[in-house]
Amino acid sequence: MAIQLQQVSYTYADRSMWRQTALHDINLHIAEGSLTGIAGATGSGKSTLLQLFNGILKPTEGTVQVLDVTITAGEKSPRLLPLRRRVGLVFQFPEQQMFEDTVEKDLIFGPLNFGLSLEEAKDRARQAMTAMGLDLALLERNPFRLSGGQMRKAAIASVLAMDPDIVVLDEPTATLDPVSRAELIALLERLCREQGRTIVIVTHRMDELLPYADQWALLKGGELAFQGSGRELAADPAILERCGLRVPQSLRYWQAAAKRFGLENEPPLLTAEGLAERIAALLRERGNNGGAEETGDGHE
């Protein structure tokens, strides 16, 4: 497992009268090389959970195991610098953390501070830019002169330049236009599939990630309300509403198509393209059979 939490709770201001429990009795596992989505209503504990993954926060109860590092509540923590090299945490609006006058200087900052030579750091920067689909010519540009989508990708590239095994992103598509959101999700999925990185994404736009995530973790009031695949969510979408989340449009379309065409026993198709192709194939098949089959709503 890349990440495993066992009976983990986290309480802010634990020893004061203002104590507030953000997470309670979380048991969560995330497999190496997987793409995991995390969702929940505002205040459900998502951001707190992410900060446990690289030791920014330490559990007040339970055990957090990330790769080969174990952090147990009440015990002395191991050295966390090696863990933070291997777990890249991308906060919401990461471009706000960019501060150098060129993109390259921003990208090499982390590798240099982790002890790489200048040439190694520059090589890492070029690799990260390529992985994010950015033109290497942008390395010499001021990051604040990039488009919104380019700037977000460059900010994520600054984390990738440290070559982490796990990349954890908090709302990476926030404020981006629809085209840029789709491009970014596609790039993150490619990092997972082609490079074998473990990708964890917190999102409130489940539609854009639902077709690609291997598994989902849903939080409600600081507790883990669901962990499973998109197919399992499709079988019981009411769990989303119980967690204060809207049922994604792609899932609603699948439910309607499955009911109309009798597809309930098939794996859900959660992209518009995939669903359209399946329905077109069914209509062609019925046309080849003479067009006499019922569609399930009384029309032939």
Features:
four-stranded antiparallel sheet, 300 residues, alpha/beta, six-stranded mixed sheet, 11 helices, globular
Summarize the SSE layout with pairings.
Elements: E1 3-12, E2 20-30, E3 35-40, H1 46-52, E4 61-66, E5 69-72, H2 81-86, E6 87-90, H3 103-113, H4 118-131, H5 148-160, E7 166-170, H6 178-195, E8 198-202, H7 206-209, E9 215-220, E10 223-228, H8 230-235, H9 238-242, H10 249-261, H11 272-288
Parallel strand pairs: 3-8, 3-9, 6-7, 7-8
Antiparallel strand pairs: 1-2, 1-4, 4-5, 9-10
Helix pairs in contact: 3-4, 3-5, 4-5, 10-11
Description:
This protein is of the alpha/beta class and 300 residues long. The chain is 38% helix and 21% strand. The chain is built from 11 helices and 10 strands. The strands form 2 sheets. A 6-stranded mixed sheet has the order 6-7-8-3-9-10, with helices on both faces. Strands 2-1-4-5 form a 4-stranded antiparallel sheet, covered by helices on one side. Strand 1 (3-12) and strand 2 form a beta hairpin. The protein is globular, with a radius of gyration of 22 Å. The protein starts with a strand and ends in a 12-residue tail after the last helix. Mean pLDDT is 90; it is low at 292-296.
Number of helices: 11
Rg, please?
22 Å
What is the general shape? globular
Give the uncertain stretches in residue-range form: 292-296
Order of helices and strands: EEEHEEHEHHHEHEHEEHHHH
Average of per-residue pLDDT values: 90
Let me know the number of strands: 10
| Class per helix and strand makeup | alpha/beta
